[in-house]
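pasting for ref
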Amino acid sequence: MQFIHASGIVYRDLKLENILLGEDGHIKITDFGLSTAFAEESAPVVRRNFHQLTGTYEYLSPEILRGYQHSPASDIWAYGVVLFEMLTAQHPFYSPDRHQLVQNILHVPLPFHHPLSPMAIDLLQRILTREIEYRITSEEIMNHVFFDGLNWDDLLNKQISPPFVPNVQDTTDTGFFDAEFTEQPIQFTPISTKELARVPSDAFANFSYRRDYDYN
């Protein structure tokens, strides 16, 4: 998240489903379809349309639910939810009822029903702070005592051995994906010729996959 924010981008959809393991066991963040640029010096601005929320409800921060635009602090909140799930195997505010879920995110205290270290509890409380001005930043998270002893440069450079390395045959091995998804038929989203004509011919020149598709 720190690198993404330093690049002037707010991710807007951090969740467990978008954090994948590479063949070397190191994580990769995927699905940047909701990401957008942001002005670092600008404060969150109240949105005019409260019915068009961007992201996944379970990971939306309180300020987003109150009508404010996304900011790096909103990504930090989502990271806190992910961290809570990884430490406790449960969502901190989950409810199958969307209205109740929103009310939980806005008002219910963090449910520490699982035994966690004081350091973990302190970190989660600092991240999942509803007041955006008191929520800690990426840099403060990295310097928190919970991560004491972790060399972030080594982690970035993949010099720390991951605890789990998936046993895959090659980069196209989908054995760790549920058959519910891998058995779905592949369908290309139709694009009108008019819309396609607006895309520069070299727009996808450096992408690892490009399909020359006849939309006529």
